[in-house]
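Hi everyone,

Forwarding the result from last night's run.
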Amino acid sequence: MTAKEALVGRLTAAEAELSSAQLGLDDALRALLVGSRMRKVAISREVQDAFSKLRAARRELTAVQAELALA
């Protein structure tokens, strides 16, 4: 296996983990929306921050994959 193939494998695995985490957070956010108002405000901010970080990581992974395709 070449270094490029190994990197592509790692990126693919990381992307799958990001997708799984994002789905889990999406489920949690939906649950919070029907929860108690006081608790939901504090937790929903944390979940929204986590979503922002996941989206940024996904954009970065996509950019790296595009660069690998050009290499």
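Residues 3-66 form one domain.

Cheers,
N.
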